[in-house]
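Example record

The entry below shows one chain as it appears in the dataset: sequence first, then C-alpha cells.
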Amino acid sequence: MNITLRVWRQKGADDKGKMVTYGMEDVSRDMSFLEMLDVLNEQLTLTGEEPIAFDHDCREGICGACGVVINGITHGPDVTTTCQLHMRSFEDGAVIDVEPWRAGAFPVVKDLVVDRSAFDRIIQAGGFISAPTGSAPDAHAVPVPKKDADHAFDAATCIGCGACVAACPNGSGMLFTAAKITHLGLLPQGQPERDSRVIDMVNQHDHEGFGGCTNIGECTAACPKEIPLDTISRLNHDLLSALAKGEV
C-alpha cells in the first residue's frame, strides 16, 4: 500500500514546529504503525535528513510510551496503543496526520516526543502506601472483597500513556489521577494514607497545569485500557470525604 504521512516536526521545545509531508510506497499492511515509522526513519537517514523523534519502549501495549495523535485521534483509529496499531487499519492511498499529545502540561520536547513527567510527580505526591517491605504475604492474608478487588485491578491497568489528557478538550489528567488513587483506595493496604493521598495527588494535578474535569468522557473513550469514567466519581467521593474530615 502507498500512503502519505504528514508529521509534526519540531527541533526543540522553544522552536516553532510545522507539519512535513512524506510519501511512502509498498508499505506492508502487517506492519505496526511504529514499524512503519522505523522504515521512514531509515529512508530519512539514508538521504541525510534528521529522523523523526518518537517515544517507544516495550512495543507490546504495556508501557504506554508510544502515544501520538493519528488523524486527530489519540493512538489512532483502533482502541489500543500506537505500537499495537497496524497499517491494515488504513486504506491504500491514505493521508495520515501524526502529531504529539496536545496539552499544556505535556510540553513538546522534539517532534512527536512530549514531556510526561507531570504524571510521575502526581504519583510521587501520594501514590505510595506504608506497607511493610520484605517477603510477599500469603494471598489470603489480607481478605479483599471480590468487587473491590475487581475495581482496583481495573484501575491499576492504567499505563500512564496520557491519551486521556490529549483527548480531553480541557487537557485534564483526572482519569489518570483517579486510576492511581482508586486502585490504592479500594485495598486495605491503601487505607492509612487514603485521605492525604487523594488531596496531595489532586493538588499536584492542578499544580502541573492540567485542566479541570467536566465529565465529557473523551478520556475513557480514548483510553487503551478502557478505564471507566466512574473511576473519577470514586476520586471525587474520596476527595470530598477527606476535605470534610479536614485533611488538608
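Notes for this example: Helices lie at 33-46, 117-126, 146-156, 163-167, 174-185, 194-207, 218-222, 230-244. The CA atoms of residues 3 and 24 lie 5 Å apart.
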